[in-house]
Amino acid sequence: MGKFAFTADEVDEIVSAPKYIEDPGVLNPTSEYADYPVHMKDGRKYDLIFRFFGNGTCLLLQNKPIRGINWHARHPNPDGSCVFGWHEHIFDDANDSEKVFEVPVLRSVGKRADAKIIIEISRKLWNIDVWGPMGGQLRLQMET
């Protein structure tokens, strides 16, 4: 496998830059996962994907995770510390490292957070808008 083509600073800049997903239609939170292409508002071209899966999300760059949000009762960090519950992963493939931080805004929602909340928090953290007829609103297909 080759080295990742982006430094941690470049990835941080990509994550913080304004991005958008074209109207994804109806998201089905019961699906195993769903991928949505992410576009840079300034027109730069990257192979970016927003992935939604059962109980979390991630942002992929060249098919490698660079950010992720999910839930674990206890998630150990390489430095020996732990986070509990909802947390964000910040991946640094170039240095083969990962940092994990709590997501305080999700602390109160518990393990079974509503899929729409997880998606909306992820979009806000990673600066991703939704463009399309729904004007930034995501529609979710829920089990009946």
Features:
2 helices, 43% strand, 144 residues, mainly beta
Using only C-alpha atoms, the radius of gyration works out to 15 Å
The SSE order reads HEEEEEEEEHEE
Number of DSSP helical runs: 2
Structural class: mainly beta
Principal-axis shape equals: globular
| Strand order within the widest beta sheet | 8-7-6-5-4-3-1-9
Estimated helix fraction? 10-25%
Average pLDDT: 81
Provide the β-strand percentage band. 35-45%
| Oligomer class | single chain
Largest sheet: 8 strands, mixed
Provide the low-confidence segments as ranges.
none
Distance between the termini: 44 Å
The tally of strands reads 10
Q: How does this structure look, described?
A:
The structure is a single chain. By secondary structure, the chain is mainly beta. Helices cover 14% and strands 43% of the residues. It is built from 2 helices and 10 strands; from the N terminus they run H-E-E-E-E-E-E-E-E-H-E-E. The chain has helices at 8-16, 115-125; strands at residues 19-22, 26-27, 33-40, 48-53, 56-61, 64-76, 82-92, 97-102, 128-131, 139-140. A hairpin with a 7-residue loop joins strand 3 and strand 4. The radius of gyration is 15 Å and the shape is globular.
Give a topology summary.
Blueprint: H1 8-16, E1 19-22, E2 26-27, E3 33-40, E4 48-53, E5 56-61, E6 64-76, E7 82-92, E8 97-102, H2 115-125, E9 128-131, E10 139-140
Parallel strand pairs: 1-9, 2-10
Antiparallel strand pairs: 1-3, 3-4, 4-5, 5-6, 6-7, 7-8
